[in-house]
Amino acid sequence: MTIPEAGQAGVPGRAPGAFTPESARKDFPILHRTVNGHPLVWLDNAATTQKPRQVIEALAGYYSAANSNIHRGAHTMAREATDLYEAGRAAVADFLGAASPDSVVFVRGTTEAVNLVAQSWGRAHLGPGDDILVPVLEHHSNIVPWQLVAQETRARVVPVPLLADGRIDLHAYADLLSSRTRMVALSQASNVLGTVPPVTEMTALAHRYGARVLVDGAQAVAHLPVDVTDLDADFYAFSGHKLYAPTGIGALYVKPEVLAELRPWQGGGNMIDSVSFERTTFAPAPHLLEAGTGHIAGVAGLLAALNWFTSFDLEAVAAYEDALTAYAQQAMGQVPGLEVLGSAPGRIAVLTFTVAGRDPAEIASWLDHEGIAIRAGHHCAQPALAHYGLAAAARASFALYNTPEEVDRLVASLLALDRSG
């Protein structure tokens, strides 16, 4: 089999300041460990990415030299921590193409962001007979919060069906949109099929009916260019831990004119202007939506992750991942009985698969014995798997630090599993 190398097979070559997987790998201490006596092959990136030393050092540096609560503090370290926190907000805004940092709300991750919108916006704007359109390919985190708020408001969640290749059925989507549609919640990239929906076009169509649009960017931000202004999304959410940043930190972008439609969803410190038992007034957004002490160290890590990630030529990163994914799909085709789910063009670096006669958990356990980490199960996307008549599947997902040699190890192990009887 032909292994793609830098400068070959559509994989970008090395140039000063450009990207190679080797230049990325050197920054990840964990990628140099062994698991079960074998060098680690981390192919569970859709669940979480590993962290470069720059992020690890940023966390340690914050706690060892800058630990303080933010805002309202009069002392030096409070000012320094506040400056760091707000620098992180500005970096997120720049990364997403937002016009102002004031449009960025820090959250624990995509799940909290969707719940925030469902509760803060949904409770105020949804009512009996209103529709919330959610494609079948969505992660549970972009389904269940809408079901919960629909139960409270007597709205209804309407699934948008898929085509056989894993694309959203756009004709069905257009037919389901109506004057009753209040919200469309969709992902920019699927965590189980790798599908990349035409979000800009779907958003424009939803806006014709006066609906708001929330985009789940959890799987997209590490693989695709993101410009919320171009997408025209009303809400855009992502999780830091899928973008080489720490767990427990993420961000929600809210279109400036939509911020006024949000009411507090949690009460406490930081989100108030003044408090008395007679009357409480609130701080302006984004602080209105950030009650209590946030994950300050997480913001420091997210800032470091964004600085690290954007130091590469991101077009070169995307081209490399595309070539590696194509190589992996071709190589995995050698495994008897292996079938990759979905065939939509332009997928991100996610290959969810089944092997005839093998339970996905058995596949993952076999690979783990050789130091290869993949995920098995329903991937928090049961409706998407049910579309293919499945309750579980195995998934290999790639990042910029994965290599063709690691793909070869994956395929060799799967072939050995086949020979094992």
Q: Nutshell version of this structure?
A:
The protein has 421 residues and is of the alpha/beta class. The chain contains 14 helices and 17 strands.
The SS-based structural class is alpha/beta
Residue stretches low in confidence (pLDDT < 50, at least 5 long) are: 1-16
Helical stretch tally:
14
**Radius of gyration, whole Å:** 22 Å
Query: How many beta-strand elements?
Result: 17
Q: What distance lies between the first and last C-alpha atoms, to the nearest angstrom?
A: 24 Å
**Sheet having the most strands:** 7 strands, mixed
Fraction of helical residues: 25-40%
Q: Could you say which overall geometry the principal axes of the C-alpha atoms support?
A: globular
Please, what is the average pLDDT? 94
Range of strand content = 15-25%
The strand line-up of the biggest sheet is: 4-10-9-8-7-5-6
